[in-house]
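User: Design a sequence. Structure:
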């Protein structure tokens, strides 16, 4: 069985000077220390301490061996999205990031699958970049779940997603810039509450707006962190659709009938929660995702999958690798 982690981040070595292409829009860069540790920086502000696996492919591959992970889909750290920048600057930034990710993954192309990022604030340029990235060897696209107040139910973003489907690159959606941040300043609540809420908002917004009726059925779309709170609250959404015309105004079918249109990763950390997620989504729509190499990720990849009650050997194999192989189209892994 090949174990494939679809949710693993990278922050290639980018200098302070190189980050200035995003002048005034976060300017993310990596400060590497002599002791092998590092600090993700946002301009002159320290953002998060990190370990070498985030930028050192040799260290990552050694850790993957120890953790029993055969393949990772490697995506940028969301701090690097650059969505607040002027579009031309953001495009230049994404070009650089994508080249660095390709270089990082070239150290083990059979084990590290590069995912590109795009300047989503300009959907037309993003579509052009997806085509270029696919030709260069990227295996997917990593995007945030919104750009300012534009979520994935936005018409221009529909066109971008349809282009991804046409090119044949799957899309990994990660929450970021969480809502209600001013009310969740302590205890990492933006990550613990805001991230699941952002993802739930994105999925349900796409369903109830009718977006899935306008997006190609060939699009492969995966939402991180188990789809946030979507699975747990799906019954509430279905009940509202059946009983309120305001809810079903733009969606011809109840929300539960759209679960076959997207995937989620398994990063819910509790076998009981994972059991619910599989019951709601189906074992063919859940893929191993760990949020590696961050401390809020699953530190023993696949442990929740292996401990999930009532999961057959066949479904365990699908979730740990088979579904991801289908999602990324097989190939050299």
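Assistant: Done.
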């Amino acid at each position: 069985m090949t174990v494939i982690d679809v949710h693993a981040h990278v922050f290639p070595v980018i200098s302070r000077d190189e980050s200035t292409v995003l002048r005034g829009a976060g300017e993310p860069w990596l400060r590497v220390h002599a002791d092998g540790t590092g600090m993700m920086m946002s301009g002159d502000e320290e953002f998060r301490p990190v370990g070498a696996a985030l930028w050192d492919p040799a260290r990552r591959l050694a850790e993957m061996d120890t953790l029993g992970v055969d393949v990772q889909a490697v995506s940028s750290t969301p701090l690097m999205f650059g969505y607040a920048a002027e579009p031309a600057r953001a495009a230049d930034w994404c070009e650089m990031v994508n080249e660095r990710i390709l270089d990082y993954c070239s150290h083990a192309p059979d084990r590290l699958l590069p995912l590109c990022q795009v300047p989503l604030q300009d959907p037309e340029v993003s579509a052009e970049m997806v085509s270029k990235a696919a030709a260069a060897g990227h295996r997917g696209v990593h995007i945030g779940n919104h750009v300012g107040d534009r979520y994935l139910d936005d018409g221009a973003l529909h066109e971008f997603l349809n282009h991804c489907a046409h090119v044949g690159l799957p899309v990994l959606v990660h929450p970021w810039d969480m809502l209600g941040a001013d009310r969740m300043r302590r205890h990492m609540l933006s990550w613990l509450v805001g991230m699941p809420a952002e993802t739930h908002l994105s999925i349900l917004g796409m369903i109830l707006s009718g977006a899935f009726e306008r997006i190609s059925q060939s699009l492969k779309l995966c939402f991180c962190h188990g789809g946030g709170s979507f699975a747990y609250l799906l019954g509430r959404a279905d009940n509202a659709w059946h009983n309120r015309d305001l809810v079903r105004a733009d969606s011809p079918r109840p929300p539960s009938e759209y679960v076959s249109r997207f995937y989620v990763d398994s990063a819910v950390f509790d076998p009981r929660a994972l059991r619910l997620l599989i019951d709601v989504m189906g074992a063919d729509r859940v893929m191993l995702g760990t949020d590696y190499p961050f401390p809020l990720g699953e530190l023993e990849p696949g442990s929740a999958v292996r401990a999930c009650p009532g999961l057959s050997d066949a479904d365990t194999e699908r979730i740990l690798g088979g579904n991801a192989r289908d999602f990324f189209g097989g190939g050299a892994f």
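The two ends are 12 Å apart (CA to CA). The chain has one domain: 4-11+55-327.
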